[in-house]
From TrEMBL, chain A:
One of its GO terms (cellular component) is plasma membrane. CDD domains: TM_PBP1_LivM_like (cd06581). InterPro entries: ABC_transp_permease, LivM-like. This is Branched-chain amino acid ABC transporter permease. It comes from Ureibacillus yapensis. It is a multi-pass membrane protein. PANTHER family: HIGH-AFFINITY BRANCHED-CHAIN AMINO ACID TRANSPORT PROTEIN BRAE, HIGH-AFFINITY BRANCHED-CHAIN AMINO ACID TRANSPORT SYSTEM PERMEASE.
From TrEMBL, chain B:
The chain crosses the membrane at residues 6-26, 33-54, 60-78, 90-112, 132-158, 188-210, 265-284. One of its GO terms (biological process) is L-isoleucine import across plasma membrane. Keywords: Amino-acid transport, Cell inner membrane, Cell membrane, Membrane, Transmembrane, Transmembrane helix, Transport. The lineage of its organism: Bacteria, Bacillati, Bacillota, Bacilli, Bacillales. Belongs to the binding-protein-dependent transport system permease family. LivHM subfamily. It is found in: Cell membrane. This is Branched-chain amino acid ABC transporter permease. One of its GO terms (molecular function) is L-valine transmembrane transporter activity. It comes from Ureibacillus yapensis.
Length: 312, 291
Protein backbone atom coordinates (compact mmCIF):
# COMPACT_ATOMS: atom_id res chain seq x y z
CA UNK A 1 0.00 0.00 0.00
CA UNK A 2 2.75 2.40 0.98
CA UNK A 3 4.82 1.35 -2.01
CA UNK A 4 2.07 2.19 -4.46
CA UNK A 5 1.61 5.60 -2.81
CA UNK A 6 5.27 6.42 -3.43
CA UNK A 7 4.87 5.16 -6.96
CA UNK A 8 1.86 7.35 -7.80
CA UNK A 9 3.45 10.28 -6.03
CA UNK A 10 6.52 10.06 -8.22
CA UNK A 11 4.35 9.64 -11.31
CA UNK A 12 2.49 12.82 -10.38
CA UNK A 13 5.78 14.62 -9.81
CA UNK A 14 7.00 13.56 -13.25
CA UNK A 15 3.82 14.82 -14.91
CA UNK A 16 4.05 18.15 -13.07
CA UNK A 17 7.66 18.48 -14.20
CA UNK A 18 6.62 17.73 -17.77
CA UNK A 19 3.82 20.32 -17.65
CA UNK A 20 6.09 23.03 -16.21
CA UNK A 21 8.70 22.50 -18.93
CA UNK A 22 5.97 22.38 -21.60
CA UNK A 23 4.53 25.69 -20.36
CA UNK A 24 8.03 27.19 -20.36
CA UNK A 25 8.54 26.02 -23.94
CA UNK A 26 5.20 27.37 -25.20
CA UNK A 27 5.77 30.56 -23.19
CA UNK A 28 9.07 31.06 -25.01
CA UNK A 29 11.22 30.99 -21.86
CA UNK A 30 13.21 27.99 -23.15
CA UNK A 31 14.57 28.70 -26.60
CA UNK A 32 15.56 26.18 -29.27
CA UNK A 33 19.01 25.66 -27.77
CA UNK A 34 17.69 24.59 -24.38
CA UNK A 35 14.96 22.53 -25.98
CA UNK A 36 17.49 20.59 -27.99
CA UNK A 37 19.62 20.02 -24.88
CA UNK A 38 16.51 18.78 -23.07
CA UNK A 39 15.68 16.35 -25.87
CA UNK A 40 19.29 15.20 -26.02
CA UNK A 41 19.15 14.65 -22.27
CA UNK A 42 16.02 12.53 -22.62
CA UNK A 43 17.64 10.44 -25.36
CA UNK A 44 20.73 9.88 -23.23
CA UNK A 45 18.62 8.93 -20.20
CA UNK A 46 16.76 6.37 -22.28
CA UNK A 47 20.02 4.92 -23.59
CA UNK A 48 21.57 4.84 -20.13
CA UNK A 49 18.55 3.21 -18.52
CA UNK A 50 18.19 0.67 -21.32
CA UNK A 51 21.85 -0.31 -20.94
CA UNK A 52 21.43 -0.30 -17.16
CA UNK A 53 19.01 -3.20 -17.36
CA UNK A 54 21.60 -5.24 -19.29
CA UNK A 55 24.76 -4.34 -17.37
CA UNK A 56 23.52 -3.04 -14.05
CA UNK A 57 20.68 -5.45 -13.36
CA UNK A 58 21.61 -8.60 -15.24
CA UNK A 59 25.38 -8.12 -15.12
CA UNK A 60 25.90 -8.92 -18.80
CA UNK A 61 28.63 -6.74 -20.16
CA UNK A 62 27.43 -5.35 -23.49
CA UNK A 63 29.48 -2.66 -25.23
CA UNK A 64 27.54 -2.61 -28.47
CA UNK A 65 24.49 -0.66 -27.40
CA UNK A 66 24.83 1.89 -30.18
CA UNK A 67 24.11 -0.89 -32.66
CA UNK A 68 20.55 -1.31 -31.36
CA UNK A 69 20.13 2.44 -31.26
CA UNK A 70 21.14 2.47 -34.94
CA UNK A 71 18.55 -0.19 -35.75
CA UNK A 72 15.83 1.85 -34.04
CA UNK A 73 16.96 5.04 -35.74
CA UNK A 74 17.13 3.60 -39.24
CA UNK A 75 13.93 1.56 -39.13
CA UNK A 76 11.87 4.41 -37.68
CA UNK A 77 13.35 6.70 -40.33
CA UNK A 78 12.35 4.24 -43.04
CA UNK A 79 8.86 4.15 -41.56
CA UNK A 80 8.39 7.92 -41.61
CA UNK A 81 10.40 8.92 -44.66
CA UNK A 82 9.83 6.01 -47.05
CA UNK A 83 6.49 4.61 -45.92
CA UNK A 84 4.91 7.83 -44.68
CA UNK A 85 3.72 6.40 -41.38
CA UNK A 86 2.95 8.69 -38.40
CA UNK A 87 5.79 9.28 -35.94
CA UNK A 88 4.45 7.31 -32.93
CA UNK A 89 3.98 4.25 -35.15
CA UNK A 90 7.50 4.74 -36.47
CA UNK A 91 8.92 4.83 -32.93
CA UNK A 92 7.13 1.58 -32.19
CA UNK A 93 8.41 -0.02 -35.40
CA UNK A 94 11.97 1.10 -34.67
CA UNK A 95 11.75 -0.22 -31.13
CA UNK A 96 10.28 -3.57 -32.16
CA UNK A 97 12.88 -4.13 -34.86
CA UNK A 98 15.61 -3.17 -32.38
CA UNK A 99 14.16 -5.65 -29.88
CA UNK A 100 14.17 -8.36 -32.57
CA UNK A 101 17.78 -7.50 -33.35
CA UNK A 102 18.53 -7.75 -29.63
CA UNK A 103 16.87 -11.16 -29.53
CA UNK A 104 18.80 -12.29 -32.58
CA UNK A 105 22.11 -11.08 -31.16
CA UNK A 106 21.32 -12.15 -27.62
CA UNK A 107 20.44 -15.81 -28.18
CA UNK A 108 23.86 -16.85 -29.52
CA UNK A 109 26.08 -14.37 -27.71
CA UNK A 110 24.62 -14.58 -24.22
CA UNK A 111 26.11 -18.04 -23.87
CA UNK A 112 29.39 -16.20 -23.59
CA UNK A 113 30.61 -14.57 -20.41
CA UNK A 114 32.43 -11.44 -19.36
CA UNK A 115 35.07 -10.22 -21.75
CA UNK A 116 34.03 -12.52 -24.57
CA UNK A 117 30.45 -11.28 -24.41
CA UNK A 118 31.69 -7.68 -24.44
CA UNK A 119 33.75 -8.27 -27.55
CA UNK A 120 30.96 -10.21 -29.26
CA UNK A 121 28.44 -7.40 -28.68
CA UNK A 122 31.00 -4.90 -29.94
CA UNK A 123 31.43 -7.06 -33.03
CA UNK A 124 27.67 -7.28 -33.61
CA UNK A 125 27.30 -3.51 -33.28
CA UNK A 126 30.06 -2.98 -35.83
CA UNK A 127 28.42 -5.47 -38.20
CA UNK A 128 25.09 -3.63 -37.86
CA UNK A 129 26.84 -0.35 -38.62
CA UNK A 130 28.65 -1.78 -41.66
CA UNK A 131 25.37 -3.19 -42.98
CA UNK A 132 23.76 0.26 -42.84
CA UNK A 133 26.88 1.68 -44.44
CA UNK A 134 26.49 -0.64 -47.41
CA UNK A 135 22.74 -0.46 -48.01
CA UNK A 136 21.97 2.21 -50.57
CA UNK A 137 18.26 2.22 -49.69
CA UNK A 138 19.10 4.09 -46.46
CA UNK A 139 21.69 6.37 -48.05
CA UNK A 140 24.89 4.44 -47.35
CA UNK A 141 27.79 6.43 -45.98
CA UNK A 142 26.21 9.76 -46.98
CA UNK A 143 23.40 9.18 -44.52
CA UNK A 144 19.65 9.60 -44.62
CA UNK A 145 17.83 12.91 -44.60
CA UNK A 146 14.99 13.04 -42.09
CA UNK A 147 12.45 15.65 -41.15
CA UNK A 148 12.50 16.94 -37.61
CA UNK A 149 9.59 15.38 -35.73
CA UNK A 150 10.92 14.89 -32.21
CA UNK A 151 9.83 17.33 -29.57
CA UNK A 152 9.80 17.56 -25.81
CA UNK A 153 6.51 15.65 -25.49
CA UNK A 154 7.77 12.60 -27.40
CA UNK A 155 11.14 12.68 -25.66
CA UNK A 156 9.54 12.96 -22.23
CA UNK A 157 7.02 10.21 -22.95
CA UNK A 158 9.90 8.00 -24.07
CA UNK A 159 11.83 8.57 -20.85
CA UNK A 160 8.72 8.15 -18.72
CA UNK A 161 7.75 4.82 -20.26
CA UNK A 162 11.35 3.57 -20.27
CA UNK A 163 11.91 4.28 -16.60
CA UNK A 164 8.44 3.05 -15.65
CA UNK A 165 8.88 -0.29 -17.39
CA UNK A 166 12.45 -0.88 -16.28
CA UNK A 167 11.86 0.16 -12.66
CA UNK A 168 8.85 -2.13 -12.44
CA UNK A 169 10.69 -4.93 -14.19
CA UNK A 170 13.52 -4.63 -11.67
CA UNK A 171 11.15 -4.94 -8.75
CA UNK A 172 9.25 -7.84 -10.24
CA UNK A 173 9.94 -11.56 -9.99
CA UNK A 174 11.75 -11.41 -13.33
CA UNK A 175 13.92 -8.52 -12.16
CA UNK A 176 14.94 -10.44 -9.06
CA UNK A 177 15.84 -13.35 -11.32
CA UNK A 178 18.07 -11.03 -13.33
CA UNK A 179 19.70 -9.62 -10.20
CA UNK A 180 20.46 -13.12 -8.97
CA UNK A 181 22.25 -13.78 -12.28
CA UNK A 182 24.33 -10.66 -11.74
CA UNK A 183 25.27 -11.73 -8.23
CA UNK A 184 26.19 -15.30 -9.03
CA UNK A 185 25.19 -17.03 -12.21
CA UNK A 186 26.07 -20.54 -11.09
CA UNK A 187 24.17 -20.16 -7.83
CA UNK A 188 21.18 -18.71 -9.69
CA UNK A 189 21.26 -21.66 -12.05
CA UNK A 190 21.38 -24.03 -9.09
CA UNK A 191 18.33 -22.33 -7.56
CA UNK A 192 16.33 -23.21 -10.64
CA UNK A 193 16.43 -19.85 -12.40
CA UNK A 194 16.44 -20.15 -16.16
CA UNK A 195 19.50 -17.93 -16.61
CA UNK A 196 19.58 -17.96 -20.41
CA UNK A 197 15.91 -16.96 -20.56
CA UNK A 198 16.31 -14.02 -18.17
CA UNK A 199 19.49 -12.83 -19.86
CA UNK A 200 17.78 -12.83 -23.25
CA UNK A 201 14.69 -11.08 -21.80
CA UNK A 202 16.81 -8.34 -20.25
CA UNK A 203 18.82 -7.96 -23.43
CA UNK A 204 15.67 -7.70 -25.55
CA UNK A 205 14.03 -5.12 -23.26
CA UNK A 206 17.25 -3.10 -23.26
CA UNK A 207 17.42 -3.23 -27.05
CA UNK A 208 13.76 -2.24 -27.33
CA UNK A 209 14.29 0.99 -25.40
CA UNK A 210 17.57 1.66 -27.17
CA UNK A 211 15.44 1.46 -30.32
CA UNK A 212 12.99 4.04 -28.89
CA UNK A 213 15.91 6.33 -28.09
CA UNK A 214 17.31 5.78 -31.57
CA UNK A 215 13.97 6.66 -33.18
CA UNK A 216 13.70 9.91 -31.26
CA UNK A 217 17.37 10.65 -31.95
CA UNK A 218 16.90 10.08 -35.69
CA UNK A 219 14.05 12.57 -35.87
CA UNK A 220 15.77 15.15 -33.70
CA UNK A 221 18.54 15.94 -36.18
CA UNK A 222 18.04 16.31 -39.88
CA UNK A 223 20.35 13.53 -40.91
CA UNK A 224 21.55 10.18 -39.61
CA UNK A 225 24.82 8.61 -40.69
CA UNK A 226 26.25 5.19 -39.86
CA UNK A 227 29.39 6.77 -38.39
CA UNK A 228 27.33 8.31 -35.59
CA UNK A 229 26.61 4.84 -34.24
CA UNK A 230 30.19 3.63 -33.97
CA UNK A 231 31.64 2.18 -30.80
CA UNK A 232 32.46 5.64 -29.46
CA UNK A 233 28.70 6.08 -29.07
CA UNK A 234 28.52 2.73 -27.29
CA UNK A 235 31.30 3.83 -24.96
CA UNK A 236 29.44 7.09 -24.27
CA UNK A 237 26.39 5.13 -23.13
CA UNK A 238 28.59 2.80 -21.11
CA UNK A 239 30.14 5.79 -19.35
CA UNK A 240 26.70 6.99 -18.16
CA UNK A 241 25.91 3.63 -16.64
CA UNK A 242 29.31 3.08 -15.08
CA UNK A 243 29.70 6.55 -13.62
CA UNK A 244 26.19 6.52 -12.18
CA UNK A 245 26.82 3.23 -10.51
CA UNK A 246 26.44 -0.26 -11.90
CA UNK A 247 23.07 -1.43 -10.70
CA UNK A 248 21.58 1.95 -9.84
CA UNK A 249 18.79 3.21 -12.07
CA UNK A 250 18.71 6.69 -10.57
CA UNK A 251 22.50 6.77 -10.74
CA UNK A 252 22.53 6.20 -14.47
CA UNK A 253 19.78 8.82 -14.93
CA UNK A 254 21.76 11.37 -12.92
CA UNK A 255 24.99 10.57 -14.78
CA UNK A 256 23.20 10.92 -18.13
CA UNK A 257 21.74 14.31 -17.16
CA UNK A 258 25.02 15.55 -15.72
CA UNK A 259 27.20 14.44 -18.61
CA UNK A 260 24.77 15.81 -21.21
CA UNK A 261 24.96 19.22 -19.56
CA UNK A 262 28.75 19.01 -19.26
CA UNK A 263 29.21 17.99 -22.87
CA UNK A 264 26.79 20.72 -24.02
CA UNK A 265 28.96 23.31 -22.26
CA UNK A 266 32.18 21.76 -23.55
CA UNK A 267 30.89 21.25 -27.09
CA UNK A 268 33.26 23.97 -28.31
CA UNK A 269 36.22 21.98 -27.02
CA UNK A 270 35.74 18.41 -28.27
CA UNK A 271 39.29 17.20 -27.52
CA UNK A 272 39.36 18.62 -24.03
CA UNK A 273 35.93 17.14 -23.43
CA UNK A 274 37.11 13.67 -24.36
CA UNK A 275 40.31 14.01 -22.30
CA UNK A 276 38.27 15.02 -19.24
CA UNK A 277 35.79 12.20 -19.91
CA UNK A 278 38.47 9.56 -20.12
CA UNK A 279 40.37 10.86 -17.09
CA UNK A 280 37.16 10.89 -15.03
CA UNK A 281 36.42 7.36 -16.20
CA UNK A 282 39.87 6.08 -15.19
CA UNK A 283 39.88 7.89 -11.84
CA UNK A 284 36.39 6.72 -10.92
CA UNK A 285 37.31 3.14 -11.80
CA UNK A 286 40.54 3.30 -9.77
CA UNK A 287 39.13 4.93 -6.66
CA UNK A 288 35.44 4.10 -6.71
CA UNK A 289 34.89 1.12 -9.00
CA UNK A 290 31.21 0.84 -8.08
CA UNK A 291 30.42 4.24 -9.62
CA UNK A 292 28.90 7.21 -7.84
CA UNK A 293 25.86 5.57 -6.31
CA UNK A 294 26.95 1.94 -6.31
CA UNK A 295 23.91 -0.29 -6.39
CA UNK A 296 21.89 2.11 -4.24
CA UNK A 297 19.07 4.28 -5.50
CA UNK A 298 18.73 7.97 -4.82
CA UNK A 299 15.35 7.37 -3.12
CA UNK A 300 16.93 5.02 -0.62
CA UNK A 301 19.19 7.79 0.60
CA UNK A 302 16.18 9.43 2.21
CA UNK A 303 14.91 6.32 3.94
CA UNK A 304 17.24 5.17 6.61
CA UNK A 305 16.86 1.62 7.77
CA UNK A 306 14.39 0.64 5.08
CA UNK A 307 14.77 -0.91 1.69
CA UNK A 308 14.43 1.50 -1.23
CA UNK A 309 10.88 1.65 -2.59
CA UNK A 310 9.82 1.75 -6.20
CA UNK A 311 10.96 4.70 -8.23
CA UNK A 312 9.88 6.36 -11.38
CA UNK B 1 49.08 -15.02 -60.86
CA UNK B 2 46.98 -12.39 -59.23
CA UNK B 3 46.06 -14.76 -56.45
CA UNK B 4 49.65 -15.17 -55.37
CA UNK B 5 49.96 -11.41 -55.19
CA UNK B 6 46.80 -11.11 -53.10
CA UNK B 7 48.13 -13.83 -50.85
CA UNK B 8 51.35 -11.90 -50.29
CA UNK B 9 49.34 -8.72 -49.58
CA UNK B 10 47.22 -10.69 -47.14
CA UNK B 11 50.25 -12.10 -45.38
CA UNK B 12 51.79 -8.63 -45.09
CA UNK B 13 48.60 -7.26 -43.52
CA UNK B 14 48.27 -10.41 -41.42
CA UNK B 15 51.79 -10.09 -40.06
CA UNK B 16 50.94 -6.61 -38.78
CA UNK B 17 47.80 -7.98 -37.10
CA UNK B 18 49.86 -10.82 -35.70
CA UNK B 19 52.39 -8.46 -34.13
CA UNK B 20 49.61 -6.50 -32.41
CA UNK B 21 47.76 -9.68 -31.47
CA UNK B 22 50.85 -11.02 -29.70
CA UNK B 23 50.69 -8.16 -27.21
CA UNK B 24 46.98 -8.73 -26.61
CA UNK B 25 47.38 -12.42 -26.11
CA UNK B 26 50.39 -12.13 -23.78
CA UNK B 27 48.67 -9.53 -21.59
CA UNK B 28 45.43 -11.48 -21.55
CA UNK B 29 47.29 -14.66 -20.77
CA UNK B 30 48.97 -13.14 -17.76
CA UNK B 31 46.40 -10.83 -16.13
CA UNK B 32 43.15 -11.71 -17.99
CA UNK B 33 42.64 -8.15 -19.17
CA UNK B 34 41.64 -7.06 -22.66
CA UNK B 35 44.05 -4.19 -22.98
CA UNK B 36 42.00 -1.84 -25.17
CA UNK B 37 44.83 0.68 -25.07
CA UNK B 38 47.01 -1.73 -27.02
CA UNK B 39 45.76 -0.44 -30.36
CA UNK B 40 46.71 3.06 -29.25
CA UNK B 41 50.22 1.96 -28.31
CA UNK B 42 50.40 0.72 -31.90
CA UNK B 43 49.33 4.21 -33.05
CA UNK B 44 51.94 5.86 -30.80
CA UNK B 45 54.58 3.55 -32.27
CA UNK B 46 53.61 4.67 -35.77
CA UNK B 47 53.91 8.33 -34.76
CA UNK B 48 57.22 7.87 -32.94
CA UNK B 49 58.57 6.14 -36.03
CA UNK B 50 57.22 8.94 -38.20
CA UNK B 51 58.90 11.66 -36.17
CA UNK B 52 62.13 9.68 -36.01
CA UNK B 53 62.22 9.30 -39.78
CA UNK B 54 60.81 12.66 -40.86
CA UNK B 55 62.29 14.99 -38.23
CA UNK B 56 65.52 13.34 -37.21
CA UNK B 57 66.31 11.80 -40.60
CA UNK B 58 66.86 8.34 -39.21
CA UNK B 59 66.70 5.19 -41.28
CA UNK B 60 64.08 2.47 -41.01
CA UNK B 61 65.86 0.26 -38.50
CA UNK B 62 66.90 2.98 -36.00
CA UNK B 63 63.35 4.34 -36.16
CA UNK B 64 61.96 0.86 -35.57
CA UNK B 65 64.18 0.34 -32.53
CA UNK B 66 63.40 3.78 -31.06
CA UNK B 67 59.67 3.18 -31.54
CA UNK B 68 59.92 -0.23 -29.88
CA UNK B 69 61.87 1.13 -26.91
CA UNK B 70 59.58 4.11 -26.32
CA UNK B 71 56.47 1.97 -26.71
CA UNK B 72 57.85 -0.50 -24.19
CA UNK B 73 58.28 2.35 -21.71
CA UNK B 74 54.78 3.67 -22.45
CA UNK B 75 53.35 0.20 -21.98
CA UNK B 76 55.00 -0.16 -18.59
CA UNK B 77 53.78 3.30 -17.53
CA UNK B 78 50.21 2.42 -18.53
CA UNK B 79 50.43 -0.81 -16.59
CA UNK B 80 51.94 0.78 -13.48
CA UNK B 81 49.60 3.78 -13.38
CA UNK B 82 46.28 2.39 -14.51
CA UNK B 83 46.16 -1.39 -14.34
CA UNK B 84 48.26 -2.27 -11.33
CA UNK B 85 45.64 -1.14 -8.82
CA UNK B 86 43.02 -3.18 -10.58
CA UNK B 87 44.60 -6.61 -10.10
CA UNK B 88 41.86 -7.63 -7.70
CA UNK B 89 39.06 -5.47 -9.11
CA UNK B 90 36.11 -6.81 -11.08
CA UNK B 91 36.58 -7.61 -14.75
CA UNK B 92 34.17 -4.85 -15.73
CA UNK B 93 36.17 -2.22 -13.81
CA UNK B 94 39.40 -3.34 -15.48
CA UNK B 95 37.85 -3.36 -18.93
CA UNK B 96 36.35 0.10 -18.47
CA UNK B 97 39.69 1.45 -17.25
CA UNK B 98 41.31 0.01 -20.37
CA UNK B 99 38.70 1.77 -22.52
CA UNK B 100 39.38 4.97 -20.57
CA UNK B 101 43.13 4.72 -21.14
CA UNK B 102 42.53 4.12 -24.84
CA UNK B 103 40.32 7.23 -25.16
CA UNK B 104 42.83 9.24 -23.13
CA UNK B 105 45.77 8.36 -25.40
CA UNK B 106 43.81 9.04 -28.59
CA UNK B 107 42.49 12.37 -27.46
CA UNK B 108 45.77 13.53 -25.94
CA UNK B 109 47.45 12.91 -29.29
CA UNK B 110 44.62 14.74 -31.09
CA UNK B 111 44.89 17.59 -28.60
CA UNK B 112 48.60 18.09 -29.18
CA UNK B 113 48.84 17.60 -32.92
CA UNK B 114 45.33 17.69 -34.34
CA UNK B 115 43.40 14.87 -35.96
CA UNK B 116 44.83 15.38 -39.44
CA UNK B 117 46.55 12.39 -41.06
CA UNK B 118 50.26 12.32 -41.79
CA UNK B 119 52.01 10.89 -44.85
CA UNK B 120 54.81 8.51 -43.98
CA UNK B 121 58.11 9.23 -45.73
CA UNK B 122 59.47 6.53 -47.98
CA UNK B 123 62.36 4.89 -46.18
CA UNK B 124 62.52 1.51 -47.83
CA UNK B 125 63.22 1.36 -51.54
CA UNK B 126 60.21 -0.04 -53.27
CA UNK B 127 61.15 -2.27 -56.19
CA UNK B 128 58.89 -4.86 -57.72
CA UNK B 129 60.23 -8.34 -57.85
CA UNK B 130 58.61 -10.78 -60.18
CA UNK B 131 58.13 -14.22 -58.72
CA UNK B 132 56.07 -16.76 -60.69
CA UNK B 133 54.51 -13.89 -62.59
CA UNK B 134 53.33 -12.08 -59.47
CA UNK B 135 54.62 -8.60 -58.73
CA UNK B 136 55.77 -8.55 -55.16
CA UNK B 137 57.23 -5.37 -53.76
CA UNK B 138 60.55 -5.59 -51.96
CA UNK B 139 58.83 -3.68 -49.13
CA UNK B 140 56.45 -6.48 -48.31
CA UNK B 141 59.30 -8.99 -48.30
CA UNK B 142 61.25 -6.73 -45.97
CA UNK B 143 58.25 -6.34 -43.69
CA UNK B 144 57.68 -10.05 -43.65
CA UNK B 145 61.34 -10.57 -42.80
CA UNK B 146 61.21 -8.11 -39.90
CA UNK B 147 58.03 -9.71 -38.57
CA UNK B 148 59.50 -13.19 -38.72
CA UNK B 149 62.69 -12.07 -36.95
CA UNK B 150 60.63 -10.40 -34.19
CA UNK B 151 58.51 -13.50 -33.74
CA UNK B 152 61.55 -15.77 -33.51
CA UNK B 153 63.01 -13.34 -30.97
CA UNK B 154 59.80 -13.50 -28.98
CA UNK B 155 59.76 -17.29 -29.05
CA UNK B 156 63.36 -17.22 -27.83
CA UNK B 157 62.53 -14.81 -24.99
CA UNK B 158 59.48 -16.75 -23.88
CA UNK B 159 60.99 -20.21 -24.05
CA UNK B 160 64.72 -19.82 -23.41
CA UNK B 161 65.21 -16.95 -20.97
CA UNK B 162 64.59 -16.63 -17.28
CA UNK B 163 62.04 -13.82 -17.66
CA UNK B 164 60.18 -15.89 -20.24
CA UNK B 165 60.02 -18.77 -17.82
CA UNK B 166 58.70 -16.40 -15.16
CA UNK B 167 56.06 -15.10 -17.60
CA UNK B 168 54.86 -18.59 -18.36
CA UNK B 169 54.78 -19.42 -14.67
CA UNK B 170 52.76 -16.31 -13.77
CA UNK B 171 50.28 -16.87 -16.56
CA UNK B 172 49.82 -20.42 -15.34
CA UNK B 173 49.23 -19.55 -11.68
CA UNK B 174 50.23 -16.16 -10.23
CA UNK B 175 49.91 -17.25 -6.60
CA UNK B 176 52.04 -20.34 -6.99
CA UNK B 177 54.58 -18.30 -8.97
CA UNK B 178 54.79 -15.78 -6.13
CA UNK B 179 55.33 -18.60 -3.64
CA UNK B 180 58.22 -19.83 -5.78
CA UNK B 181 59.95 -16.48 -5.40
CA UNK B 182 59.01 -14.92 -8.74
CA UNK B 183 58.48 -11.18 -8.66
CA UNK B 184 54.99 -11.15 -10.18
CA UNK B 185 54.75 -7.37 -10.57
CA UNK B 186 57.99 -7.14 -12.49
CA UNK B 187 57.02 -10.07 -14.67
CA UNK B 188 53.73 -8.44 -15.57
CA UNK B 189 55.56 -5.20 -16.37
CA UNK B 190 57.97 -7.13 -18.57
CA UNK B 191 55.03 -8.67 -20.40
CA UNK B 192 53.57 -5.24 -21.04
CA UNK B 193 56.97 -3.98 -22.20
CA UNK B 194 57.44 -6.81 -24.69
CA UNK B 195 53.85 -6.64 -25.95
CA UNK B 196 53.99 -2.86 -26.37
CA UNK B 197 57.36 -3.04 -28.12
CA UNK B 198 55.85 -5.45 -30.64
CA UNK B 199 52.88 -3.11 -31.11
CA UNK B 200 55.30 -0.21 -31.66
CA UNK B 201 57.15 -2.23 -34.29
CA UNK B 202 53.81 -3.04 -35.93
CA UNK B 203 53.02 0.69 -35.95
CA UNK B 204 56.22 1.60 -37.82
CA UNK B 205 55.73 -1.26 -40.27
CA UNK B 206 52.11 -0.22 -40.84
CA UNK B 207 53.24 3.36 -41.52
CA UNK B 208 55.89 2.30 -44.01
CA UNK B 209 53.56 -0.12 -45.77
CA UNK B 210 50.35 1.93 -45.92
CA UNK B 211 52.04 5.40 -45.85
CA UNK B 212 49.14 7.07 -44.01
CA UNK B 213 48.80 7.41 -40.26
CA UNK B 214 46.36 9.32 -38.06
CA UNK B 215 45.57 9.43 -34.32
CA UNK B 216 42.58 7.09 -34.63
CA UNK B 217 44.36 4.52 -36.79
CA UNK B 218 44.88 2.20 -33.83
CA UNK B 219 41.22 1.58 -33.08
CA UNK B 220 40.24 -0.74 -35.89
CA UNK B 221 43.54 -2.66 -36.24
CA UNK B 222 43.51 -2.99 -32.46
CA UNK B 223 40.07 -4.58 -32.48
CA UNK B 224 40.96 -6.80 -35.40
CA UNK B 225 44.17 -7.90 -33.72
CA UNK B 226 42.04 -8.86 -30.76
CA UNK B 227 39.88 -10.89 -33.14
CA UNK B 228 43.09 -12.53 -34.39
CA UNK B 229 44.11 -13.33 -30.83
CA UNK B 230 40.70 -14.89 -30.10
CA UNK B 231 40.82 -16.77 -33.39
CA UNK B 232 44.15 -18.32 -32.53
CA UNK B 233 43.14 -19.03 -28.96
CA UNK B 234 43.72 -16.22 -26.51
CA UNK B 235 46.77 -16.68 -24.33
CA UNK B 236 48.55 -18.76 -26.96
CA UNK B 237 51.51 -17.15 -28.74
CA UNK B 238 51.57 -19.37 -31.87
CA UNK B 239 47.79 -18.91 -31.94
CA UNK B 240 48.15 -15.14 -32.22
CA UNK B 241 50.56 -15.49 -35.13
CA UNK B 242 48.37 -17.93 -37.02
CA UNK B 243 45.21 -15.96 -36.18
CA UNK B 244 46.74 -12.73 -37.45
CA UNK B 245 47.86 -14.29 -40.71
CA UNK B 246 44.50 -16.00 -41.30
CA UNK B 247 42.64 -12.76 -40.61
CA UNK B 248 44.89 -10.76 -42.94
CA UNK B 249 44.47 -13.25 -45.77
CA UNK B 250 40.68 -13.45 -45.28
CA UNK B 251 40.35 -9.66 -45.36
CA UNK B 252 42.46 -9.37 -48.49
CA UNK B 253 40.46 -12.08 -50.20
CA UNK B 254 37.18 -10.36 -49.29
CA UNK B 255 38.55 -7.12 -50.77
CA UNK B 256 39.85 -8.89 -53.86
CA UNK B 257 36.44 -10.41 -54.49
CA UNK B 258 35.05 -6.89 -54.77
CA UNK B 259 33.46 -6.54 -51.36
CA UNK B 260 35.99 -4.06 -50.00
CA UNK B 261 33.32 -2.16 -48.03
CA UNK B 262 32.44 -5.38 -46.20
CA UNK B 263 36.07 -6.00 -45.29
CA UNK B 264 35.71 -4.76 -41.72
CA UNK B 265 32.59 -6.84 -41.21
CA UNK B 266 34.50 -10.00 -42.20
CA UNK B 267 36.72 -9.77 -39.14
CA UNK B 268 33.75 -9.42 -36.79
CA UNK B 269 31.81 -12.23 -38.48
CA UNK B 270 34.88 -14.46 -37.94
CA UNK B 271 34.99 -13.32 -34.32
CA UNK B 272 31.37 -14.17 -33.66
CA UNK B 273 31.55 -17.50 -35.43
CA UNK B 274 34.66 -18.50 -33.49
CA UNK B 275 33.16 -17.31 -30.19
CA UNK B 276 30.01 -19.31 -30.75
CA UNK B 277 31.52 -22.44 -32.26
CA UNK B 278 34.88 -22.76 -30.53
CA UNK B 279 35.46 -20.05 -27.92
CA UNK B 280 38.86 -21.44 -27.00
CA UNK B 281 40.18 -20.69 -30.51
CA UNK B 282 42.38 -22.80 -32.76
CA UNK B 283 45.23 -23.37 -30.32
CA UNK B 284 43.43 -22.66 -27.08
CA UNK B 285 42.98 -25.09 -24.28
CA UNK B 286 39.52 -25.93 -23.05
CA UNK B 287 39.24 -24.88 -19.45
CA UNK B 288 36.54 -26.11 -17.19
CA UNK B 289 34.86 -23.61 -14.99
CA UNK B 290 35.31 -24.21 -11.31
CA UNK B 291 32.66 -23.29 -8.77
Amino acid sequence: MKKSKVFWGLCLLAIIFYAVVQVMISGGILDMYYQSILIQMCINIMLAVSLHIIIGITGQFSIGHAGFMAVGAYFSAIATMKLGLPFPVAILIGAIVAALAGLLVGIPSLRLKGDYLAIATLGFAEIIRIIFLNVDYVGGAAGMVITNLSNWTYAFMGVFVTILVIANFTNSRHGRGCISIREDEIAADAMGINTTYYKVVAFTIGSFFAGVAGAIYAHNFFIIQPTTFGFLKSFDILIYVVLGGLGSLSGSVIAAIFLTVVSAYLSGYPEERMIIYSLVLIIVMLYRPTGLLGTKEITSLFKFGKRGGSKV
Amino acid sequence: MEWLQQLVNGISLGSIYALIALGYTMVYGIIKLINFAHGDVFMLGAFIGFYAIARWDLGFFPALIIAMLLCAIIGVIIERVAYKRLRNATRIAALITAIGVSLLIENTVIYFRGASPEAYPEVLSNKSISIFGANISSQSIMILGVTIVLMILLQFIVHKTKIGKAMRAVSHDPDAARLMGINVDNTISATFAIGSALAGAAGVIFGVYYTRIDPLMGVLPGLKAFVAAVLGGIGSIPGAMVGGLVLGVVETVVSALGYSLWRDAAAFVILILILILKPSGIFGKNTREKV
